[in-house]
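In the previous lecture we treated proteins in isolation. Real proteins rarely work alone, and many bind small molecules. This record shows how such a complex is specified: first the sequence, then the SMILES for calcium ion.
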Amino acid sequence: MPGSDRPGAPGRWRRPGRAVLWLVVLALSGVGLVACGGSDSGAGSGSAGGGGRGAASASPLAAGAGTAGAGAGQPVTRAVVDGLAAPWDVAFLPSGEALISERDSGRILRLPAGGGRPTVLTTLPGVLHHGESGLLGLAVSPTFTTDRYVYAYYTTASDNRIVRFRLDGTRAQAPTPILTGLAQNVIHNGGRIRFGPDNLLYAGVGDAGVRTRAQDRASLNGKILRIRPDGSIPPTNPFPGSPIYSLGHRNVQGLAWDAQGRLWASEFGQDRFDEINLIVPGGNYGWPIVEGFSDDNRFRRPLVTWAPSDASPTGIAIRGTTMYVASLRGQRLWELDLSGGAVRGRPRAVLAGTLGRLRAAVDAPDGSVWIVTNNTDGRGTPRPGDDRIIALR
Ligand SMILES: [Ca+2]
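The predicted 3D structure, ligand included, written as tokens:
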């Protein structure tokens, strides 16, 4: 794959003209558009440049409104848990219990298999929450039954870091850092961590507000990283001696693999184009030289883009041939059809106007996809019961 050119032939979702058309279609359809530029907070600068953005509309959407090919109803959902405080990520233990990170408190909650009330497993030491930072991603070792390791990505006063700790019975042991020194800021901290099918740990790391870092191979910011479970560098990484797996990223908060073992990532745009990318080792995804589509062959093109007001995509999950994209400002779940190996047709919006901001989509062991809301972090409008997790069947 490293020698290949672009992922797939040009198609309707790979052309800027189509993307602009798409914005216009959404604007005309009255989809809730709020003009403000692109951190994950939705509290951005409101800079100009995004065509097709109009006034806000709070009206709920029918499933798929504004999308071609709509017509199916809302998905069947089941309430899993509510009353959470700024939840950010979920990881499952082999027992079926779920671990939930709380961004601001630094707590990891433990939810019984099948539901019930969560208990506090541990509070990670030194977590600093400011702006978008704090306790972010979680991952459970793919060999947990033998090593008992849980992984977390969080912000401290001096850095963003990845730690791991052993979970012995109901007790969390003291965490050990495995990767430290990632620049942190109030914005663009990345933070999603996931184990790949190669049993290596991948991390989306934001540019932390300094855009030039994304093209700088001496910086680990603005990258997707890949490390061994102990933090060491795999000899098969694309740049010898470096944890960098791909570069040119602004703020990646979604990582998922398809049935073919290919890595997909979501990325927040500045104020023009959010992106879904197919990630290849050593690939350069353009930021900050290019946002969205470009004819510059140094950079890989996204397979899907949105205006940040329609998406601001964070966590993603893939189940079968469907990708689920949790959207913050877009306040909806986007579904992408990956059958055929690329993105087929247009993304379809579901759950729009029903749950508010969405922070994570997680593939659950029971075959459902868990969706984590994000309305209690100071940027959203909490509803009764927020924040919550629902299961999508
Ligand atoms: Ca890009």
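Summary for your notes: The longest helix spans residues 16-28. The first strand starts at residue 77 and ends at 81.
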